[in-house]
Every structure is written in C-alpha cells, then in structure tokens.
Amino acid sequence: MDTNSFRPEDADGVSERTLELTRRRSQLLGPAYRLFYRDPVHLVRGSGSHLFDADGERYLDVYNNVASVGHCHPRVVAAVQQQVATLNTHTRYLHEAVLDYAEDLLSTTPDEIGQLMLLCTGSEANDLAVRVAQAHSGARGVVISAEAYHGNTDTVSQLSPALGTAQPLGEWVRTVPAPDARLAAAEGWDDLGAWFAAKVAAAADELEAAGHGVAALLADSIFSSDGVFPDPAGFLAPAVTEVRARGGVLIADEVQPGFARTGRAFWGFAGHGVVPELVTTGKPMGNGIPVSGLLAQPHVLASFAEHLPYFNTFGGNPVSVAAAQAVLDVIRDEDLQGSALSVGTALQTDLRSLAGRTDLLGEVRGAGLYTGLEVVDPETGAGSKDLALEVVEALRQRRVLTSVCGAGGDVLKLRPPLVFSATDAAWLLEALDDAVREVAARRR
Q1: Which residue of 31, 179, 317, 335 has the lowest C-beta tally within 10 Å?
Q2: Residue 118 backbone dihedrals phi, psi, to 5 degrees
Q3: How many angstroms separate the Cα of 199 from the Cα of each of 32, 105, 127?
Q4: pLDDT per residue as tens digits for the range 295-313
Q5: Rounded to an integer, what distance in angstroms lies between the CA atom of residue 235 and that of residue 292?
Q6: Is 434 helix (H, G, I), strand (E, B) or coil?
Q7: Contacts by 344-350 with C-beta closer than 8 Å and gap 24+?
Q8: Minimal CA–CA distance to 32: which of 189, 176, 167, 231?
Q9: Whole-model pTM?
C-alpha cells in the first residue's frame, strides 16, 4: 500500500553505512517491518516540514501528517518536557488537564458530540468505535470503502482492504467502490452522492440478508487510501441516511482529514454536512506523541458503557494530553487551518498546471494540505503503479519524501505537515517537474 521497499538485491549505489543499518534492522526487528525507498533514508533530526539525514542533507517532508504542526514544534516539545518532569500516570486518577483538554477538543465538534475517550493509537480508536457501534445497534455488520485503511488491530485489520489480499476481510464486512465521479459516470449516474448511496444501500442490504445487520458505515471523509476523493461537498450525506435507516451509525475516521488538514473546516466530516455518531482520531493529535481519541454522542456511547467498562493504561496520560493540548493551541494561534487552505489550494492549482504540460500526470484531487496526484501511462491514459513508484523514487533522490495511495497504487499522496509553506510548495513543484521529466525520458 506504500512506496518501494529496500531489497538487498537493489543495493547498488546504497552506502555501506546504510547497508549495515538495514542488516542490523532486519536481524533485530524481524522481517515484517518495511523500509521506504530502494535507497533508505537515515533521518536524525526534524524541524517544521524539513528532515535531516545523518550526513546533514535536508529533505522536504510531503508525507507526514503525524507531525501535524511540524517536526519538533517548540511549543509541543516544551509542553511535553514540563509535564514529564511533573507527573505521568493513567486516567483512574483525577487530572484537571485531561478534563480541560476534553472540553477544548469537544468544543471543535457539533453540539451533539459530547464525550471523549482517550487512547494511544488510531487503530485502538477505530477498534473501540466499532465495538461501541455494534453495542448500540445490536448488529455486527460494517460498510467500508474498497481501499480503506482503518488500522492494524485484529478487528480493524479486517476492515482495512488496503493491507492487501493476504489480510482477509471480516465476514461481517462489505465494501463499496471509491467515490470516484468517473466510476459513477461510467454506470450512467451524474449525481455522485446518489450513486454512492446506492452502493452503500446495496452493501447494507447484503449484510442484513446474511444475518449480520448494519452497525456502521466506517468512512474516512477524504477517502485518502482510496486515492483522495473529497468532492463534491456533501456527497457522503445520502449514504449516511441509508445506513441510519437500517439502524446503523456513522463512524467518521478523522485520522487523515481531521485537525484542520482540509483547510475547509477543523474536521473533514464537516464538508459533508453530517454529524457523526462517533468520530475517531489519532496520529496528528499529539504531533508524534502517542494519543488518540473516540469522540461520541453520549446516547451512543451509553449502550456500550452500560455493560462494559473500558480502561487503557496509557490512553489519556498527562504527558500525551499536554502534547495534544499544545497541538490544538498551535493550530489556532498560528492559523494553520487557514494556511492549509491557502497553501494547499495554490499548490493544487500549480499541480494542475504541471499536469497539463506532461502526459505522465493525470487528475489532481484534494482539499487543503491533502492532495492526490494521479500518475498515468502516457500510452493508455490508465493509472500506472510502476510509473508512480518511479516518480516517488526520483523525488527521493531530489530529497522530497512522499508516497502513493489508491487501489492501483498510482496516486501520489501529498500530505505534508500543516506548517508547509509556499516556499516548500515551490521546492516540491520544481522537484516534481524534474522527476517527471526524468521518468518520462527513461521511457523513450
């Protein structure tokens, strides 16, 4: 689901120090881990949207939504340092900062959403959200998109087709196609929302016929793993209506589109005019410190809580909450939502201009600082995973780091920290132009 990975047989041109580190890594950490790039990057420091390797070379990070307000943001670092020197424990004791943060985060959501459960990872948050939805609905079935990624616990791995065919989906899971207007048009639909709702309704009916019922539609509102499909505004709402008509709820997975990423709103689901019963978030919440959340409408959470207590030893610890509070403060004080909108919109305009000058690039889709850029085969016009990976490698050689997404792995996933600037965008555009020229020249 991601970029090329280092293989020993591709070691030509890789430094001896890098080879030694990859050998140690494989021996000590085991074979399940993967490294980005044929020539792995050895990073030692980060600042803002830039990273630095062991040789002092500077890289542009166009991939990392984990460090949402920038690598090593001084306010986040200071908040963590102060709290870790004071107290760090779990949520079975009272701690005012945890409650203050809950009030602050909930203030960014619609009034119907009134409670927050704190965890460590987005995977945990989605796992818990599915359990809550199932307890509330009395059903088990979940509808997801065809290339969704919702985490790596046993439960959410079964809800993550992006992990590949070796990871089976749950028998209580049904998939629907990515909300691509081109797919809808090919089937004779000019209304993407109506087409997508029909697909969700059919999947929900299958779940009911199989005896699973419908517990939830679990959706990332920007459909990032499917290839980035944020538009048109509101297209998700009719599908949510179909799920609710069958007793299910909407779980909005906001790990990717949340925390001002789209620029249009603080939460991605706001662009669809819906109020989810459950909202999950993770990576961008703590700028690299493990913290995640399940935000819930109280009556939905009550169905679960009446029968099951929940405890997470590290979820909501004061150090992680201090990081999370600093992230919220920085997003507001530095107007990173406004910056994401302005810088991202300008970037997408420039990317469309670049795509118009080469037959190697196709559609540009995005919102704020989340952009999908198709890489296509010039001869057929179809998406090309091989060419996309070649572009990613060419960008890496120009010290620009990014990845791919989409069912075919043919979409460049451009998702930098929110502090990504117009100067950074210019670096990306110059490197991309050069990389595309290089890849195109190899085909001649």
Answers
A1: 31
A2: -105, 135
A3: 35, 33, 24
A4: 999 999 999 999 888 989 9
A5: 27
A6: helix
A7: 344/263, 344/368, 344/369, 344/370, 344/371, 345/263, 346/422, 346/425, 347/371, 347/414, 347/425, 347/428, 347/429, 350/425, 350/429
A8: 167
A9: 0.95
- Residues 6 or more apart from 235 whose CB is under 8 A from it? 179, 192, 193, 196, 272
Q: Can you tell me the distance from the alpha carbon of 130 to that of 218, in angstroms, rounded to the nearest whole number?
A: 8
pLDDT in tens, 166-215: 889 999 999 999 999 999 999 999 999 999 999 999 999 999 999 999 99
- The backbone torsions φ and ψ at residue 92, rounded to the nearest 5 degrees and listed phi first, read -90, 0
Q: pLDDT by residue (tens digit) across 230-249? A: 999 999 999 999 999 999 99
What is the Cα–Cα distance from 426 to 438, expressed in whole angstroms? 18
- For residues 118 and 293, the answer to whether their CB atoms sit within 8 Å is yes
> 350: part of which helix (H) or strand (E)?
helix 336-355
The yes-or-no verdict on residue 1 having pLDDT over 90 is no
| Contact criterion met (CB below 8 Å) for 364 and 356 | no
Question: What is the rounded distance in angstroms from the CA atom of residue 420 to the CA atom of residue 369?
Answer: 8
DSSP-derived pairing of the beta strands 173-176 and 216-219: unpaired
Tokens of 342: 């302005």
DSSP readout, 42-60? -EEEEEBTEEEETT--EEE
DSSP 8-state secondary structure symbol assigned to residue 383: B
Q: Token pair for residue 340?
A: 């994401």
**Inter-residue contact 73 to 261 (CB < 8 Å):** no
pLDDT in tens, 323-377: 999 999 999 999 999 999 999 999 999 999 999 999 999 999 999 999 999 999 9
Tokens 């990081």 — which residue?
A: 323
Q: How confident is the model at residue 108 (pLDDT cuts 50, 70, 90)?
A: very high
Q: CA 131, 134, 137 angle in degrees (round to 5)?
A: 150
